[in-house]
Amino acid sequence: MNQRKINELVDDNYVYASVLYYFGIKFYDYSEKTLEQACTERGLNVKTVTKKLESAKTKEEAPLLLNQYPVDLIITYLQHAHYLFIKEKLPYIAQIIQGFNADHKDYNVIEKDLKFVFPLFVEDFIHHIYEEEDTLFYYIKTLDKFINENKGNISHVYYLMERSSLQRYAIEHEEHDDEMQGIRKITNGYSMDDKTPLHVKVIYEELKELEKSLVTHAHVENEILFPKALMLEKEAKNKFSQKVGFN
């Protein structure tokens, strides 16, 4: 592996590109260098880098059994996913798109469109994440503490329930479920063949994996979190009704 060129390694497994990126090796800047040469130029221990590359495999989503877990752990899982999107996945994809120099008649327009659209997608997506954590997740966690831990200011909980609506959140959430539709259109559904340039392959593979992650994320929210949250909301309403009845 040490004596193979960077472009050969990445062509074998596009995941290597992201591993090298976190070592400071942009695959397109070192494409004709061997791994050993690139590590030497970066002052890296080639054995350390090789070991990390050898442990890298094609990205796969782990099976999700989150429906068996309580609401607070599901939200923790989703918040961790948000962190990975913001701190790792999106910056890496943005970097390889920014470093994309098509110089190819079939991809010149795609290059310009991606460089324009992807930053807008990232900005909108991050705004959506922060808004979701500050409103939806906060509301659900408040309901969870009120019902399952008997904690929380009853007036505050009542105020949140009057102001919030899980049904409205669910409808708004569905509108964000296909956020990558425009990017799919630009890339013709991430269409690739044997003649597709390596840089394009890496970008498309990463975009495909991002979309798969977003689909999984949306599934957890729509099919697991929302039903549990609706049950909490129903229990909270019943609890308030009982208190009013007693009074």
TrEMBL record:
The keyword Ion transport does not apply. Residues 112-229 form the Hemerythrin-like domain. InterPro entries: Hemerythrin-like, RIC_family. GO terms for molecular function: metal ion binding. GO terms for cellular component: cytoplasm. The keyword Nucleotide-binding does not apply. It comes from the Bacteria. Gene3D superfamilies: nmb1532 protein domain like. Keywords: Cytoplasm, Iron, Metal-binding. It is found in: Cytoplasm. Its main location: cytoplasm. This is Hemerythrin domain-containing protein.
